[in-house]
Amino acid sequence: MILQTRCLCSGRSSPRIVLPFLRLRPPPLVLLRKAHTSKTSKRQYGEITIPEIDAKWLARWEDTPRTFQSPSTSTKPPYYVLSMFPYPSGTLHMGHLRVYTISDVVARYKHMKGFNVLHPMGWDSFGLPAENAAIERGVDPAEWTDQNIETMKTQLKRMGARFDWSRELRTSSPDFYSGTQKLFLELYKEGLAYRAPALVNWDPVDQTVLANEQVAKDGTSWRSGAKVEQKYLEQWFFKITRNAPFLRHSLESLRGKWPDHVIRQQENWIGESSGSRVKFPLRIADADGSSHEDALKIYTTRLDTIFGVQFLALSVTHPLVQKFSETDAELKAFVDNIPNLPVGTKAGYLLSNVKAFNPILQETAEDGTLLPAGNFDLPVFVAPYVLGGLGTSAVMGVPAHDQRDFDFWQENCPEQPVRFVIVQQGAKDRMVEPRVVTSTTNKIFAPGITKSFLNENCGQYAGLNCVVAHQQLFATLKERGMALPSKRFRIRDWLISRQRFWGTPIPIVHCGSCGSVPVKDEDLPVLLPKITLTGKGGSPLKQAKEWVKTTCPKSV
Ligand SMILES: [Zn+2]
């Protein structure tokens, strides 16, 4: 038998493949039995055809569907075999046969060992390919998906696998995605699902967000082939970073059981780094003319540069920014405009009501007690270049020794001098005087930590090697209750907004007065509207005007 295998998931076509096992002689047991009962010459030894055997048993299993069902009343020990549900792309390919043969072997083995085996099959039937196919063919994505499922189901049945079809499910059916929506709302209530502007991979042809895995090495889209752009968009995330320490810790239990290189890949993905969490006191001016104090926690791996801090910057997702933008219309406009800013923007918004104090400058009295914070003179900005969700969503800006901080400083405070605090070993210029630096006249200095030392701008720490200074500065701040050791992880929250239309509707209503409001449980599922997909720009949901303009769950 020759199959043309084509995977619509990747859009690639693989060469014709001859299924080798269909050319083998049938196993002896079957041959003997068949030879014994044969009546025609065709049924003599060696002349039995697999398709005939297939047809006989497929018909038998079709007539008695209970053969492979897993009754919930069974007293046998239960065993669950679950393979990944296929995406209904149109036809099965060799990859499907391979994976489902493996799970079928396990299911049959466990069945023969006396287990009540549940081996279900279903369809991972939401996704962009269905939407694209629907646009190309001018059909409803649901219709296209259902047709494909019928074709693939027939093929899967011909494979003769031991699936319990009475448990079949498809993720695009409202019965199923009602559950998806319930789970989403549970995560939302726990703060594990949230919405934030994020820099995403944007496919200008498909008009959709792409996962990193969908961007080819040459920077083009895996499907459309278009050059992928970077763009800020409001996106939904799952807060998987909350589990980063647990994930990292759990890897230890796999050592010696999993291949080393797999564990290393996981370690790199989680990407743990060690640094310090430093508290910067804040003074916030209130509307009535008074002021109050607060503190900002900042993660840094370069505490040795703390004397060079000239500003603090908050990500747009920082809780303080969200709080201030409720009363500061200009700030809200800045945040709202971020999606329109170019990639790598150094734009900043100065929070004029907030000033910060550098905790290393706090002085002590003669008896060793700490004096109150002195000059609150550090400006605090909101800056899109600070990543939300990483560490503390806030950075200490050291323009002299960090390129990104310098670029931001130059953009927002071009006339202000830069204060250098670290000097490379052997350098003649100790760079003590602050100076106005421009990228054409001078380069900033990103110091390596081992071969540099602190200059005279660092008080009692001047002359110390950066590594030693780092340890001493941390000890001092820790004693004052202003620093703690901290871990940070490279793992990012999981961006889930990917489909334009053919996906589970997110059950949140955006209300002009209440903000984001979860749909009530009894109103689930939120059904996808029926619309015609044109593939022309923007969200297809714009067409469904009645669906988009709904009532706020809080007002009914
Ligand atoms: Zn409302």
Automatic annotation (TrEMBL):
<comment type="similarity">
    <text>Belongs to the class-I aminoacyl-tRNA synthetase family.</text>
</comment>
<feature type="domain" description="Leucyl-tRNA synthetase editing">
    <location>
        <begin position="267"/>
        <end position="431"/>
    </location>
</feature>
<dbReference type="GO" id="GO:0006429">
    <property type="term" value="P:leucyl-tRNA aminoacylation"/>
</dbReference>
<dbReference type="InterPro" id="IPR009008">
    <property type="entry name" value="Val/Leu/Ile-tRNA-synth_edit"/>
</dbReference>
<keyword id="KW-0648">Protein biosynthesis</keyword>
<keyword id="KW-0436">Ligase</keyword>
<dbReference type="GO" id="GO:0004823">
    <property type="term" value="F:leucine-tRNA ligase activity"/>
</dbReference>
<protein>
    <recommendedName>
        <fullName>leucine--tRNA ligase</fullName>
        <ecNumber>6.1.1.4</ecNumber>
    </recommendedName>
</protein>
<dbReference type="Pfam" id="PF00133">
    <property type="entry name" value="tRNA-synt_1"/>
</dbReference>
<dbReference type="InterPro" id="IPR001412">
    <property type="entry name" value="aa-tRNA-synth_I_CS"/>
</dbReference>
<dbReference type="GO" id="GO:0005524">
    <property type="term" value="F:ATP binding"/>
</dbReference>
<feature type="domain" description="Aminoacyl-tRNA synthetase class Ia">
    <location>
        <begin position="56"/>
        <end position="245"/>
    </location>
</feature>
<keyword id="KW-0067">ATP-binding</keyword>
<dbReference type="Pfam" id="PF13603">
    <property type="entry name" value="tRNA-synt_1_2"/>
</dbReference>
<keyword id="KW-0547">Nucleotide-binding</keyword>
<dbReference type="GO" id="GO:0002161">
    <property type="term" value="F:aminoacyl-tRNA deacylase activity"/>
</dbReference>
<keyword id="KW-0030">Aminoacyl-tRNA synthetase</keyword>
<dbReference type="InterPro" id="IPR014729">
    <property type="entry name" value="Rossmann-like_a/b/a_fold"/>
</dbReference>
<dbReference type="InterPro" id="IPR025709">
    <property type="entry name" value="Leu_tRNA-synth_edit"/>
</dbReference>
<dbReference type="InterPro" id="IPR002300">
    <property type="entry name" value="aa-tRNA-synth_Ia"/>
</dbReference>
<dbReference type="InterPro" id="IPR002302">
    <property type="entry name" value="Leu-tRNA-ligase"/>
</dbReference>
<dbReference type="GO" id="GO:0032543">
    <property type="term" value="P:mitochondrial translation"/>
</dbReference>
<dbReference type="GO" id="GO:0005739">
    <property type="term" value="C:mitochondrion"/>
</dbReference>
